[in-house]
Amino acid sequence: MKFRRGILLFIIGVVLVAYFTKPSKDGFIKFIQPAVSRTQIPPVVDYQDQFLYALVTATYIDAGNPVKEGGRIVAPTRKETYIGVFGRYWKQAP
Q1: CA-to-CA distance for 86 and 94, rounded, in angstroms?
Q2: Taking the C-alpha atoms of 46, 47, 49 and 50 in order, what is their torsion angle to the nearest 10 degrees?
Q3: pLDDT on residue 77
Q4: What is the maximal distance between C-alpha atoms in the chain?
Q5: Tens of pLDDT along 6-16?
Q6: Secondary structure (3-state) at 58
Q7: Cβ density class 42-76: b for 16+ within 10 Å, e for less
Q8: pLDDT digits over 36-85, tens only?
């Protein structure tokens, strides 16, 4: 009985810590600042606030290396997805 109660209290504690330490959009901007300083173009950020975590999709635009596609010159892009929980952001694998 004590073991189950301990496990239940542990799970409730982890959920509360995750809820109160969920990182913000400003925190992501500070986290991604080194990548912005290399390219000089900040990424387009799509921030989704979930209950216990945050999902962020950053779209990087490479305007310095345009490519010709379909008769037009376009700037290539790449997307990266991050998950924010416990006050930190982690990059998700593609």
Answers
A1: 22
A2: 60
A3: 87
A4: 71
A5: 999 999 999 99
A6: strand
A7: ebeeebeeeeebbebebebeeeeeeeeeeeeeeee
A8: 777 678 888 999 998 899 999 999 888 888 888 888 998 888 899 999 99
From CA 45, how far away is CA 56, in angstroms rounded? 7
**What does the mean pLDDT of the chain come to?**
89
Report the residue count for the chain: 94
Domain that holds residue 47: 2-91
Please name the amino acid found at residue 47.
Y
DSSP string computed for the chain: -HHHHHHHHHHHHHHHHHHHT---HHHHHHHHHHHHHHHSSPPEEEEEE-SS-EEEEEEEE-TTS-EEETTEEE--EEEEEEEEETTEEEEPP-
Number of domains making up the chain:
1
- Measured CA distances, 21 to 30, 75, 82 (Å): 16, 37, 16
